[in-house]
Amino acid sequence: MAEVEQAAYESALNAPLDGEECACPSAAEPKAETDQGEDLWVDRYAPCSFLELLGHEEINREVVRWLKTWDKCVFGEDKHRPGPKPHKAAAGKGPATKQGADVRPPQKILLLCGAPGLGKTTLAHVVARHCGYRTVEINASDERTAATLQARISDAVQMQSVLGAGRPNCVIIDEIDGATGGSEGRGAIQALIKLVQAGGGKRDASRSGATEEAEEHSEADDRQGKRRKKGAQPLCRPLIAICNDLYAPALRPLRAVAKIVHYKKPTVDRLSSRLRFICSSEGLSIDRPALTTLCERMEHDVRSCLNTLQFLSKRTRSIRSSHVSGVQCAQKDIVKSAFGIWQDLFTDKVPAGPQSSSRAGGGFERLYSALGDFGDHQLVLAGLQENFPAARYLDSHMARTAAVADALADGDRLLRAVHRRSDFAALKFAPAHALAVRAIVAGPQRVQMRWPSSQADVHRRTVAHRALLQGWLTDVHPTVFSTLSSATAVREVLPALVRVVNRAVRPVAPHLFTAEERGAMAAMVDLLLAHGLTLSLSAAPATAHHPQPAHADLPETTALSPTVHTLVLFPGVPHGGKVMPLTIRQMVVQQLQLEAIRRREAVFMDNAVGEASVSAPPEDAPGHGLSSSQGAEEGGSQRPPSGEKRYQLTVAQRAKEAAGAGAKKAGPVRKASWLDALRQKSERAGQHRPKPSKAEEAQDAAAGKTVQSVRYKFHEGFTNAVKRPVRMKDLM
Amino acid sequence: MLWVDKYRPRTLDDLIIHQDLGESLKKLVSTGDCPHLLFYGPPGAGKKTLIIGLLREIYGSAVEKIKVETKPWKIELPSRKLEIELTTVQSNYHVELNPSDVGNQDRYVVQEVIKDMCKNRPLELKGHRGYKVLLLNEVDRLSREAQHSLRRTMEKYSATCRLIFSCSNVSKVIDPLRSRCLCVRVPGPTGMEIQQVLQHVAQREEVQLPDALCQRIVQMSDRNLRRALLTLETCRVTQYPFTDAQPVQLPDWEMYIQEIAAFILQEQSPKRLYELSRKLDDELRHTTIELAAFYEHRLQEGQKAIYHLEAFVAKFMSEYKSWSIAVLG
């Protein structure tokens, strides 16, 4: 075996120099090896030089280019020829650590991803040898915990093989996504990343004290001192990781630091010509359709193509396409991506012809099992639902579209039934609905697919709306709340509320209001307060609170402050209501705050009295159940703080009190202060509040007494005024 | 407050409609004991009003002192711990809650929370009944499991606790529950009754309500008293004094559905169906309500509404198109 290996190295070495001859060793090799008896064709005909590689030329070149960026680090500055001279690099790990600047490439690890059997591992090995490295492979069969992985990699990076003719090592970590699930695997990936990032920026700064620093580092991280020391060495050999699924969760951190190369399927031409070459060298006759069918069935998987061929060669020496399609065991079991599934469902490549029926039948079965393997039937249905209007099919009466929609609905019913009854055996029928859709919509042309996002989108919006609604409902006054369910709130109350709030009030000073307007204002305040709402005061009411475009096209209306109005307005539907001007909104909000304070005050008084007479719980929401001193402070903070205003209010109060006696005699005064109206209103509102009437009377009496007992003085123009707590009620 | 709240009858004596129901409920209470009750009827028929009146009849005006409380319940299951947030309205004598709000976990609410509430005997206040009332809204939205676990709770704690259910669709309440309750059907008010109430409210508000307008409000209200009253108030705010020809405002979502229907009639094609589904999905919640009447059954069997709505619209489009081709050629 050692000889064979040596021969392989030889050929790899020669490859770049004499590319034309490269076909010769590989052609010669199988003959040499057939003597050794049966081995797998896959191994026998594995490419051993760069030019023999099957995959796309540019991908192969990209890998080589990346590996070449290491040359400066691994082989030193004085490397001119593309073909490396291994003996020159015998110094091994020398150059990079000794030089001042970090000559290593920015991406220190290559992540090669692609479907199984396309030749990723072969590519990695061939390219590494091609560039003058000795390959060290770590695959899923090895133990790959964080510690062992780290140890093995650092060994491989720092040591040098005696056998390897002085070549530096290149580590290939195969199947990195396979065995790296779970916490252990994550640890391994973490270790790998630490290794890759070790000796980054900070080593550049103080290159001389590298070892000390490493020791310090290890001392800081108490345990595993030795291993740490190794790990802290900068990585100075290329690392190639190979995976099938680039988006495996465990690989997420690795994706950020690695150079990612997607390995694509080889083309049918290249694959089949290679297969034909192999067949001819094995003395096997195979016709072109058989080869094409084989490639298609194996999804261009080189390895399984070869295995199947070898298997067939045991039965017959001349292979026809009937043999290939008859092979059951060769069916490849891979899970397709969602887009692949949808694409298969929407496209029907089978041309109309005599043999189409048989092949379509096979396609049907394959799709059925592919859908079954895919598993996420919800996703399949969602993708069909969102994409089928883009498909082109003949449909004059919409009957076929209706059939498609019905099939989708049936699929949904099936899934629902499965989940409700936990009858998962019935899931095997789920692909039937998708295939029923396919029977109608599938056509030869490609359909531009989109990821079905609308359902998730709707779900998200529903959740947001529901949260908004629930948040608002908890603020609603208890008596109103108890009669509202969320459904009736949205369906019946809110549409009306949005309109009822807009009372007709002229934008004039409050004392110029007519009696009707005063009533309207009071009604508005009462309505808003009962429903726990305020008006939004921003200039552009519809858009300010919701900068998202989703709300921009809503019809304009008076914005409420938990933005519940957005729940009942629809873009494009004309909204009958008016928009309240900003000045009036400001007025309403001010009144609202005053009224809220007043009511709270009333509740405190109620409590103070209530403690003496009835031991009833506070009627208001629990958040409002503050002690009276706190309440006074809070009331004070909510009032407009300017001294001038306070003064005016007090004056108005005095004037009103003075005028009070006269006004009662003269009957209703037309130009009475609006405060008056509100005050009367609040008293009325107090009566509406559900309370035992006796307690209320007692409370009123008590309140009256307290009002009389408090006196205050107003020191005009005197800064060192005596400060003392005053009830808000007295000031308003 | 909205008129609908302002003029809600507070006692069983104040009822304008369903007076017969009020009478029988009063008789029921006067006998001293009260069975479990199940009120069912369409929305806006007056279930809640009757229940509030009944509570007041049982406990007197003190039951109107209510507070809203949202508190998290910690429930320990054998395998895990759950935390459920639930909003309740409670007085000293009754607790009202909406267990279907918590979705799939409503079973635990029934098992733990309600049991917890039922276990505590109310303090014996002078002259009051020896039982609490637990009011559950929207029982038809409860899951099967939750309803089943209610069965035992009802029997076990019947000494200290009466349950009052309210729902709009009684067929979704399982039979064992129905048989444990006295079922009270609250029918939607007739047109005449709604008219009577509207005139009553208008009179109290000192508003002149012309008969023609009243008729039209009744017509669009769908025998839903709440909706009729809200519409009346909307009309009052939009235009007063009333005229006979005054437009009656529909709720926005119904207008939206009308627009969708018009949209369907304009053109029938798969592309249009796609645009429609864009339009639909935003307000699925609302549109479902209207369309469910036609595709209700399918919808109940399925998981995601959009498939069934789309199937319905597609079916309709197909029918409409073949019809128009047949007629117009």
UniProtKB/TrEMBL annotation, chain A:
Q: Which Pfam families match?
A: AAA
What is the protein's major site of localization? nucleus
The domain of life for this entry's organism is: Eukaryota
Q: Where is this region: Disordered?
A: 78-102, 201-230, 613-704
Q: Which residues form the AAA+ ATPase domain?
A: 106-267
UniProt keyword terms in alphabetical order = ATP-binding, Cell cycle, DNA replication, DNA-binding, Nucleotide-binding, Nucleus
Q: Where in the cell is it found?
A: Nucleus
SUPFAM superfamilies, A to Z = P-loop containing nucleoside triphosphate hydrolases
Compositional bias (Low complexity) spans?
91-100, 625-638
Matching entries from InterPro entries are given as: AAA+_ATPase, ATPase_AAA_core, CTF18-RFC_complex, P-loop_NTPase, RFC_lid
Its assembly, as annotated, is: Heterotetramer of subunits RFC2, RFC3, RFC4 and RFC5 that can form a complex with RFC1.
* Family (UniProt): Belongs to the activator 1 small subunits family. CTF18 subfamily.
Name of protein:
AAA+ ATPase domain-containing protein
Q: Which organism is it from?
A: Coccomyxa subellipsoidea
From TrEMBL, chain B:
Tell me the keywords, alphabetical order. Answer: DNA replication
Q: What is this protein called?
A: AAA+ ATPase domain-containing protein
Q: Which organism is it from?
A: Coccomyxa subellipsoidea
- Which family is it part of? Belongs to the activator 1 small subunits family.
Which SMART domains would you find in this protein's record?
Answer: AAA
What Pfam families does UniProt report for this protein, alphabetically? AAA, RCF1-5-like_lid, RFC_C
- Does the record bear Nucleotidyltransferase in its keywords? no
Q: Where is the AAA+ ATPase domain positioned along the sequence?
A: 33-189
Q: Which PANTHER family match?
A: REPLICATION FACTOR C / DNA POLYMERASE III GAMMA-TAU SUBUNIT (PTHR11669), REPLICATION FACTOR C SUBUNIT 3 (PTHR11669:SF1)
Upper taxonomic lineage = Eukaryota, Viridiplantae, Chlorophyta, core chlorophytes, Trebouxiophyceae
Q: Which InterPro entries match?
A: AAA+_ATPase, ATPase_AAA_core, DNA_pol3_clamp-load_cplx_C, DNA_Rep/Repair_Clamp_Loader, P-loop_NTPase
Top-level taxon of the source organism? Eukaryota
